[in-house]
Amino acid sequence: MIDETLRLGRERRFLVLLGLICLALIGGALYMQVALGEAPCPLCILQRYALLLIAIFAFIGAAMRSRRSITVLEGLVVLSAIAGAAVAGHHVYTQFYPTVSCGIDVLQPIVDSLPLASVFPLGFQVDGFCSTPYPPVLGLSLAQWALVAFVLTIVLVPLGVSRNRRSIR
Protein backbone atom coordinates (compact mmCIF):
# COMPACT_ATOMS: atom_id res chain seq x y z
CA MET A 1 0.00 0.00 0.00
CA ILE A 2 2.84 2.40 0.80
CA ASP A 3 4.50 1.52 -2.51
CA GLU A 4 1.26 2.33 -4.39
CA THR A 5 0.93 5.63 -2.53
CA LEU A 6 4.50 6.57 -3.50
CA ARG A 7 3.88 5.66 -7.13
CA LEU A 8 0.64 7.64 -7.29
CA GLY A 9 2.49 10.54 -5.66
CA ARG A 10 5.00 10.37 -8.51
CA GLU A 11 2.15 10.48 -11.04
CA ARG A 12 0.60 13.46 -9.28
CA ARG A 13 3.92 15.33 -9.35
CA PHE A 14 4.25 14.52 -13.07
CA LEU A 15 0.74 15.89 -13.67
CA VAL A 16 1.57 19.11 -11.83
CA LEU A 17 4.73 19.49 -13.93
CA LEU A 18 2.74 18.84 -17.13
CA GLY A 19 0.15 21.44 -16.12
CA LEU A 20 2.84 24.01 -15.39
CA ILE A 21 4.53 23.33 -18.74
CA CYS A 22 1.23 23.83 -20.57
CA LEU A 23 0.61 27.11 -18.75
CA ALA A 24 4.17 28.20 -19.59
CA LEU A 25 3.54 27.43 -23.27
CA ILE A 26 0.39 29.56 -23.19
CA GLY A 27 2.38 32.30 -21.43
CA GLY A 28 5.06 32.11 -24.13
CA ALA A 29 2.43 32.42 -26.83
CA LEU A 30 0.94 35.46 -25.06
CA TYR A 31 4.40 37.01 -24.77
CA MET A 32 5.01 36.53 -28.48
CA GLN A 33 1.58 37.99 -29.20
CA VAL A 34 1.93 41.08 -27.02
CA ALA A 35 5.67 41.82 -27.10
CA LEU A 36 6.51 40.64 -30.61
CA GLY A 37 3.22 41.46 -32.31
CA GLU A 38 2.47 37.95 -33.57
CA ALA A 39 -1.29 37.86 -34.06
CA PRO A 40 -2.97 34.52 -33.21
CA CYS A 41 -5.02 32.73 -35.85
CA PRO A 42 -8.02 30.46 -35.19
CA LEU A 43 -5.80 27.38 -35.07
CA CYS A 44 -3.45 29.08 -32.58
CA ILE A 45 -6.39 29.83 -30.31
CA LEU A 46 -7.68 26.25 -30.55
CA GLN A 47 -4.20 25.02 -29.58
CA ARG A 48 -4.28 27.33 -26.56
CA TYR A 49 -7.61 25.80 -25.56
CA ALA A 50 -6.12 22.31 -25.86
CA LEU A 51 -3.14 23.32 -23.71
CA LEU A 52 -5.47 24.88 -21.17
CA LEU A 53 -7.60 21.73 -21.03
CA ILE A 54 -4.49 19.60 -20.55
CA ALA A 55 -3.38 21.86 -17.69
CA ILE A 56 -6.81 21.83 -16.03
CA PHE A 57 -7.16 18.04 -16.27
CA ALA A 58 -3.58 17.56 -15.07
CA PHE A 59 -4.10 19.79 -12.02
CA ILE A 60 -7.41 18.10 -11.16
CA GLY A 61 -5.76 14.70 -11.59
CA ALA A 62 -2.93 15.76 -9.31
CA ALA A 63 -5.48 16.61 -6.62
CA MET A 64 -7.13 13.18 -6.80
CA ARG A 65 -6.22 10.42 -4.37
CA SER A 66 -7.58 7.25 -5.96
CA ARG A 67 -5.87 5.43 -8.80
CA ARG A 68 -9.11 5.26 -10.82
CA SER A 69 -9.80 9.01 -10.72
CA ILE A 70 -6.19 9.81 -11.62
CA THR A 71 -6.45 7.39 -14.55
CA VAL A 72 -9.66 9.00 -15.80
CA LEU A 73 -8.09 12.45 -15.72
CA GLU A 74 -4.92 11.19 -17.40
CA GLY A 75 -7.20 9.83 -20.13
CA LEU A 76 -8.77 13.28 -20.50
CA VAL A 77 -5.25 14.76 -20.72
CA VAL A 78 -4.40 12.38 -23.55
CA LEU A 79 -7.69 13.09 -25.37
CA SER A 80 -7.04 16.84 -25.12
CA ALA A 81 -3.51 16.30 -26.43
CA ILE A 82 -4.84 14.26 -29.37
CA ALA A 83 -7.23 17.10 -30.25
CA GLY A 84 -4.39 19.60 -29.90
CA ALA A 85 -2.10 17.48 -32.08
CA ALA A 86 -4.77 17.34 -34.79
CA VAL A 87 -5.14 21.12 -34.77
CA ALA A 88 -1.37 21.70 -34.61
CA GLY A 89 -0.80 19.20 -37.42
CA HIS A 90 -3.29 21.02 -39.61
CA HIS A 91 -1.61 24.30 -38.69
CA VAL A 92 1.82 22.96 -39.69
CA TYR A 93 0.33 21.74 -42.97
CA THR A 94 -1.22 25.16 -43.58
CA GLN A 95 2.12 26.85 -42.98
CA PHE A 96 3.91 24.52 -45.41
CA TYR A 97 1.20 25.07 -48.04
CA PRO A 98 0.13 28.72 -47.57
CA THR A 99 -2.42 28.51 -50.37
CA VAL A 100 -4.50 26.29 -48.05
CA SER A 101 -6.76 28.44 -45.92
CA CYS A 102 -7.11 27.90 -42.21
CA GLY A 103 -10.72 28.87 -42.57
CA ILE A 104 -10.52 32.27 -40.87
CA ASP A 105 -13.81 33.20 -42.46
CA VAL A 106 -15.44 30.05 -41.06
CA LEU A 107 -13.45 29.45 -37.86
CA GLN A 108 -13.08 33.01 -36.57
CA PRO A 109 -16.72 33.54 -35.50
CA ILE A 110 -16.83 30.07 -33.94
CA VAL A 111 -13.58 30.51 -32.00
CA ASP A 112 -14.45 34.08 -31.02
CA SER A 113 -17.81 32.91 -29.65
CA LEU A 114 -16.17 30.47 -27.21
CA PRO A 115 -16.48 31.61 -23.58
CA LEU A 116 -12.85 32.55 -22.93
CA ALA A 117 -12.80 34.89 -25.95
CA SER A 118 -15.16 37.26 -24.13
CA VAL A 119 -13.63 36.73 -20.68
CA PHE A 120 -9.99 37.04 -21.77
CA PRO A 121 -9.99 38.48 -25.30
CA LEU A 122 -6.26 39.17 -25.36
CA GLY A 123 -5.46 35.49 -25.05
CA PHE A 124 -8.37 33.81 -26.78
CA GLN A 125 -9.59 36.05 -29.60
CA VAL A 126 -8.59 35.55 -33.23
CA ASP A 127 -6.50 38.31 -34.75
CA GLY A 128 -4.39 36.77 -37.52
CA PHE A 129 -4.02 34.29 -40.36
CA CYS A 130 -2.68 30.73 -40.08
CA SER A 131 -0.33 31.03 -43.04
CA THR A 132 1.46 34.13 -41.73
CA PRO A 133 5.17 33.25 -41.49
CA TYR A 134 6.68 34.29 -38.18
CA PRO A 135 10.34 33.84 -37.32
CA PRO A 136 11.09 30.36 -35.99
CA VAL A 137 12.04 29.69 -32.39
CA LEU A 138 15.08 27.40 -32.22
CA GLY A 139 14.44 26.36 -35.81
CA LEU A 140 10.76 25.46 -35.46
CA SER A 141 7.58 27.46 -35.91
CA LEU A 142 5.19 27.84 -32.99
CA ALA A 143 2.81 25.35 -34.61
CA GLN A 144 5.64 22.82 -34.89
CA TRP A 145 6.57 23.33 -31.23
CA ALA A 146 2.93 22.88 -30.25
CA LEU A 147 2.77 19.67 -32.30
CA VAL A 148 5.91 18.39 -30.54
CA ALA A 149 4.41 19.22 -27.13
CA PHE A 150 1.12 17.49 -27.93
CA VAL A 151 2.81 14.37 -29.34
CA LEU A 152 5.11 14.16 -26.31
CA THR A 153 2.07 14.37 -24.05
CA ILE A 154 0.28 11.66 -26.04
CA VAL A 155 3.31 9.37 -25.75
CA LEU A 156 4.69 10.17 -22.30
CA VAL A 157 1.52 10.19 -20.21
CA PRO A 158 0.45 6.61 -21.03
CA LEU A 159 4.07 5.44 -21.03
CA GLY A 160 4.64 6.92 -17.58
CA VAL A 161 1.40 5.49 -16.26
CA SER A 162 2.13 1.98 -17.52
CA ARG A 163 5.73 2.12 -16.25
CA ASN A 164 4.66 3.51 -12.91
CA ARG A 165 1.82 1.04 -12.36
CA ARG A 166 3.45 -2.10 -13.71
CA SER A 167 4.65 -3.29 -10.32
CA ILE A 168 1.57 -2.12 -8.38
CA ARG A 169 -0.50 -5.06 -9.54
UniProtKB/TrEMBL annotation:
Membrane protein topology class: Multi-pass membrane protein
Residue spans crossing the bilayer: 14-34, 46-64, 76-93, 142-161
Localization per Swiss-Prot or TrEMBL: Cell inner membrane
Keyword Cytoplasm attached: no
Periplasmic side: 32-49, 90-144
UniProt family annotation: Belongs to the DsbB family.
Function as written in the Swiss-Prot or TrEMBL entry: Required for disulfide bond formation in some periplasmic proteins. Acts by oxidizing the DsbA protein.
UniProt-recorded name of the protein: Disulfide bond formation protein B
Encoding gene (name): dsbB_2
